[in-house]
Amino acid sequence: MNILIIGSGGREHSLGLALKKSKNCDSVFFAPGNTGTAKLGQNLAISETDFSALIKAVKRHSIELTLVGPEGPLVNGIVDHFESHNLTIMGPNKIAAQLEGSKAWAKDKMKSYNIPTAAYETFTEFNDAKSYIESRNVYPIVIKADGLAAGKGVTVATSYDIALNALTECFLDQKFSQAGLQVVIEDFLVGEEASILAFTDGETIIAMPPAQDHKAVFDADKGPNTGGMGAYCPAPIATPEIQEQVLEKVLKPLINGFKKDGILYKGIVYAGLMIAPSGQASVVEFNARFGDPETEVILPKLKTDLIDIFLAVINGTLHHLKIEWDNTTVVGVIMASGGYPGDFEKEKEISGIEAAEEIKNVSVIHAGTKEKNNRIVTNGGRVLCVLGQGNTIQDAIKIAYTGVDKISFKNQHYRTDIGKKAI
Question: Could you tell me the pTM of the whole model?
Answer without folding.
Answer: 0.95
